[in-house]
Write a structure and sequence with these properties.
The chain is α/β, with parallel strands linked by helices and about 650 residues long. Helices cover about 25% and strands about 15% of the residues.
Length: about 650
């Protein structure tokens, strides 16, 4: 026990010192460690004689004066927590002092610490400090704890190399003042009154932030820590923001790199669910759209039209042009339908946006209100719908049927989201991407159209990257990709691609034009994804084709020979076969079929391995039926009972 309970004596010290070692020449044997916790010491001046101490621990005493430390030049660790010290570092600085614990004392003001260059760890918890200053020259200070003081703002920490900072239990209202703590890794700000995280946006090494029981009330504050990619642990427990609907999913979505939120582990399922809810990938949106339209469609009485009914050999021919807004895909679709009017007609979509000054209702779009669009969607009239630019767009079955009744293929244009939805239907179109590659030129084209404000153009131009990245990640998704920096040149390439696809040129011309188009086509025509290839067909015929054995060269040659007359008949090169197809189609309408020739409804136009390029075939004239608005005529149906899905 200390003499009189307050003054430390040599006898007590001799019992408490430890860690005997050598010093100087090796003939001296001093003790390096002194620990005397909880002895109610008030006077420790006798320690001035213990100049070789390296570690001094005097917690839970009544010490008020530490001048004895000035005589300990080798001191490295000092713990004087739970004492009655009121003077901040009231001793001469030991040269190697690295760790100091002044917690639970009566310190009211900090002073200049430039002499303590070796200081690494400083604990000032539970004092009465109102401001942090004097640490500018502490070039090695990595851990600072100033919890449960009276600090109202963060200052005096610029360029201090802190890795751990504890400011819990103070009177802080914002995080301003932390902008220059670039090495900070762990930050504790709980039990304050912080409502804004504006000062944390540049702390890219932060891995843990504790904001428990503060005043953060807006999810928008997460934008300041959104780019902190090393942030793994965030605690917002006890903040008003937790009352926001779907708070946890929202934070997980905004901060996808988190692994712990509010002291609970963030699961992979939560991350995936949050993305699918707030910013779903285009594939997820397309799948939801397809399920929605299919559900609405099945709720209506079903009538199957054989004009667009798929067969086992070839789908109904459709041509789809896609590309970013304002790239000219709609004008190209119009011109294609005019030039190839024996093969294609334009399919008119519905939209909720208002028409531009040069657009005509019923020619460019069917312009409808949001309520009418919703009503049509619930009636199941759409094949696919998308939301783009805040407006709804949809391609109806009626638009396709109107074209198919004339025996023509349907040509449409749509955004990428619509293509992903259309891919899931029974239709298997030829997809051609019209892709601008020069942003400045594309921006000039948008300005020339005089339809968009500068802010709208700034939102439209980045869509180029969306299309190019998608094409790069999904090779073969598009049958052709054509540069569209200059409209006339792009259309010439598109024209050659379509003519080549329809086999409207002889072989020599096709080869020459294909060589010409190679310089403008970004990807080869459908070498990976061949629409007539049954391996890429939808629904139930995929599995049998995958399970069927591969064909040998002799079988493939035989198939090619059988397909060639059909191709020539479709494009009018062989009138005899063409007339036979018409008779076969007439027989399928109710006449007696030829017992020898049969009456196929549609011949195969391309099989895998046949060596023939894929074709977009027009429906033979024998299968054409008048439009529904013709007097006395109605669309031909293969079935008329309700309840059959289309």
């Amino acid at each position: 026990m200390a003499e009189k309970g307050t003054v430390l004596g040599a006898a007590v010290v001799s019992k408490c010192v430890a860690q005997l070692g050598r010093f100087g020449t090796g003939l001296h044997h001093p003790y390096y460690h002194l620990a005397m916790p909880g002895r109610k010491l008030g006077d420790v001046s006798i320690l001035c004689n213990y100049v070789h101490l390296q570690k001094l621990e005097l917690p839970n005493n009544r010490i008020t004066d530490l001048s004895c430390v000035s005589h300990m030049p080798f001191l490295v660790i000092l713990d004087v927590s739970y004492n009655e010290i009121s003077e901040f570092f009231g001793f001469e600085p030991p040269k190697n002092l690295k760790e100091v614990n002044f917690s639970h004392n009566y310190l009211t003001q900090m002073k200049d610490m430039s002499a303590y260059e070796a200081l690494v760890h400083l604990d000032l918890d539970h004092n009465q400090l109102e401001q942090i200053h004097g640490l500018d020259k502490c070039c090695k200070l990595a851990h600072l704890s100033v919890a449960h003081n009276k600090i109202t703002n963060i200052s005096g920490l610029d360029h201090v190399p802190l890795a751990h900072l504890n400011l819990r239990g103070n009177l802080l209202t914002s995080t301003e003042g932390l902008e220059n703590l670039w090495r900070l890794q762990v930050l504790d700000l709980c039990l304050n009154q912080i409502s804004s995280l504006v000062g944390l946006s540049n702390l890219h090494l932060l891995g843990s932030i504790n904001l428990e029981k503060n005043q953060v009330s807006d999810l928008e504050e997460c934008k300041y820590i959104h780019n902190l990619l090393l942030l793994r642990d965030l605690n917002l427990f006890g903040n008003p923001v937790q009352k926001e609907p779907e708070y946890r999913l929202s934070v997980v979505f905004l901060l996808q790199h988190l692994t712990i939120l509010d002291q609970e582990r963030v699961t992979v399922e939560e991350k995936v669910f949050s993305i699918n809810k707030f910013d779903p990938p285009m594939e997820v949106v397309a799948a939801r759209d397809h399920m929605t339209q299919l559900m609405y469609h099945l709720m209506q009485p079903q009538l199957l039209y054989d004009t667009t009914l798929p067969s086992n050999d070839a789908p109904y021919p459709m041509l789809v042009l896609t590309g970013p807004q304002g790239c000219g895909k709609r004008q190209m679709a119009y011109r294609l339908c005019e030039e190839f009017d024996k093969y294609f007609a334009y399919g008119i979509s519905h939209t909720t946006r208002v028409p531009y000054k040069d657009e005509v209702n019923g020619r460019d779009y069917h312009f409808v209100s949001k309520e009418d669009f919703q009503f049509l969607e619930e009636k199941g009239v759409f094949v696919e719908t998308i939301t783009h630019g805040g407006h709804r767009y949809g391609l109806s079955r009626g638009a396709i049927e109107d074209v198919a009744r004339e025996g023509l293929g349907c040509c449409v244009q749509m955004e990428l989201e619509g293509i992903l939805s259309l891919k899931k239907t029974i239709f298997e179109p030829c997809f051609i991407l019209i892709a601008p590659t020069l942003p400045d030129n594309y921006r000039a084209v948008l300005r020339y159209r005089n339809r968009y404000m500068d802010a709208q153009i700034d939102e439209i131009v980045p869509r180029i990257e969306v299309y190019t990245d998608f094409n790069r990640r999904r090779p073969g998704f598009f049958n052709n990709v054509i540069r569209c920096d200059y409209w006339d040149k792009a259309y010439q390439v598109l024209q050659r691609v379509v003519r080549n696809y329809l086999l409207l040129d002889n072989d020599e011309e096709c080869e020459g034009e294909q060589r010409m188009s190679d310089s403008a086509v970004l990807s080869p025509p459908a070498a990976v994804l061949d629409p007539p290839d049954p391996l890429y067909r939808n629904y139930s015929n995929k599995s049998p084709q995958r399970l069927s054995p591969p064909k040998n060269p002799t079988e493939l040659l035989s198939i090619c020979k059988r397909e060639q007359p059909v191709r020539e008949a479709v494009i009018g090169r062989c009138p005899e076969v063409y007339s036979w197809l018409i008779r076969s189609s007439d027989d399928s309408r109710g006449h007696s079929p030829d017992p020898i020739k049969g009456c196929p409804s549609r011949e195969p136009l391309g099989r895998p391995g046949s060596g023939v390029k894929p074709v977009l075939p027009p429906i033979p004239p024998g299968r054409r039926t008048p439009r529904s608005n013709s007097p006395g005529r109605s669309p031909r149906r293969s079935r008329s009972q309700a309840g059959m899905p289309g």
